[in-house]
């Protein structure tokens, strides 16, 4: 037994063998994409077995209070996260650089969940190449025009640190129909949603629910 093995608990070593590794040493569950299903169904199965045992032993009231306790603790642990997300997604968006920039579509794909991935490449005010997602989710009737190589006018954020997050189609493309929005990476990791399908930017119109810092 090595010094490393002596310092690690049995649980740590088991988790490492099942889920951690890279290259040729990738564990069996990871290699076959079974890690997440095995964790979820294994945990549910173990919990179901405990429920059956508790019922057979006449511990139903105790089990009920355990479940209630777990639910309360889970809610208390998750509440700060919800509050943080709520506060992070309120208020104005970072300041926008209203200088139109030419962006070229480099990727137009499905994200696997029915969503849209539109990546564009543009140059910022310093001439540096940037890759960003399009904040405007394009309506189905217009998607075939956003092929790789097509060019569009966009606005980027003024802050260079946000240059690789999202960009916005300018008013020059108000004829383009949108049916959603995406602000991934701007305030939180993933932030998106639908809008009523129609032409024009959901971000730049007068009645937009978003404001930009001045």
TrEMBL record:
Bias-annotated ranges (Basic and acidic residues): 204-214
Naturally occurring in which organism (per UniProt): Gordonia liuliyuniae
Region (Disordered): 190-214
Keywords tagged on the record: Membrane, Transmembrane, Transmembrane helix
Transmembrane domains' residue ranges: 34-56, 62-83
Protein name: Uncharacterized protein
Domain of life: Bacteria
Lineage, broadest ranks: Bacteria, Bacillati, Actinomycetota, Actinomycetes, Mycobacteriales
């Amino acid at each position: 037994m090595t010094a490393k093995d002596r310092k690690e608990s049995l649980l740590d070593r088991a988790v490492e063998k099942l889920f951690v590794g890279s290259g040729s040493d990738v564990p069996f569950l990871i290699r076959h994409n079974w890690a997440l299903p095995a964790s979820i169904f294994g945990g549910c199965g173990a919990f179901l077995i405990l429920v059956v045992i508790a019922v057979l032993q006449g511990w139903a009231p105790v089990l009920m209070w355990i479940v209630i306790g777990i639910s309360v603790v889970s809610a208390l642990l998750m509440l700060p996260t919800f509050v943080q997300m709520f506060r992070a997604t309120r208020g104005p968006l970072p300041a926008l650089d209203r200088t139109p920039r030419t962006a070229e579509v480099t990727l137009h794909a499905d994200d696997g969940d029915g969503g849209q991935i539109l990546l564009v490449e543009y140059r910022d005010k310093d001439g540096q190449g940037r890759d960003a997602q399009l904040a405007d989710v394009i309506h189905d009737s217009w998607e075939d025009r956003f092929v790789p190589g097509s060019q569009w006018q966009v606005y980027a954020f003024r802050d260079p640190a946000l240059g690789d997050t999202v960009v916005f189609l300018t008013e020059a493309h108000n004829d383009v129909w949108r049916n959603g929005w995406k602000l991934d990476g701007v305030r939180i990791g993933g932030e998106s949603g639908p809008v009523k399908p129609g032409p024009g930017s959901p971000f730049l119109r007068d009645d937009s629910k978003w404001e930009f810092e001045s």
